Known about the structure:
Elements: H1 2-34, H2 39-44, H3 56-64, H4 67-98, H5 102-114, H6 123-132, H7 139-162, H8 167-175, H9 180-191, H10 193-209, H11 212-218, H12 227-231, H13 242-263, H14 265-277
Helix pairs in contact: 3-13, 4-5, 4-7, 4-10, 5-7, 7-10, 7-11, 7-14, 8-9, 10-13, 10-14
Amino acid sequence: MDTRRYRGSTLTLEIFAILLAVIFLSPFYLVLANSVKTLKEILLDAASLPQVFHWDNYSKVWEAIDFPLAFWNSLSITVLSVIFIVLFSSMGAYRIVRHPSKFNSLVFLLLVSAMIIPFQSLMLQLVRVTSMLELRGELYGIVACYLGFGMPLSVFLFHGFIKTVPLELEEAARVDGSNPYGVFFKIVFPLLMPIIVTVIILNTLWIWNDYLLPVLVIGGNKDLTTLPVAVTKFFGQYTKKWDLALAGLVMAITPILLFFLSLQKYIVEGVTTGSLKG
């Protein structure tokens, strides 16, 4: 009887999990199926399979949004922003952990507090500050903004993980004559690799898919248009080209989806290690 109950409950859970998976995967089906339909087919029945696969939607999108340029802009902004976030966040968290003081505690408290501030409440001030500092419409401007908004969560994650690094290793390096920068980059930084990968994944997903910050900071500079901004070209005031927009969406999310699937196991590993041992 116990075996039957176990098998029955397991079967119920499996059916529930399958239904839940279908619900969560249905948007992917709708995007993929409708990306190779005509606009007429989408408007008539968006849930059906395409009668004819219109692969030319992708070639039209490639030319309409100048996909190579938009892809390069998204890639360069994401890579530069993530590099600076990892570098400065790890160094800042290391300083806070290894040199406890009232000032460092206050800095950490301010960084953690910044995580709960809605971005929408800062939009107006952000536009004013970036205009005043001549950061709008520039690559270094958008990278600087992503660095500022990405630091709080990254420092929080590094802070918990650095506590797990044995202090004896750093003391041994100092005895051997290593300077503070050598201790950090040669001893501590390599040991942070699990949480570094986690920070890279989380910030890459955010920056690559972000729409609002590029619109505010890049403005009308078409040479720096990112993929999320470029795809909105198909949504006008009176017409919406869903066939091309969905094809562009598939082209935009495919690189980041492959990146996430290849590294997703490190997210749980890094966060769990930092939270449990920190």
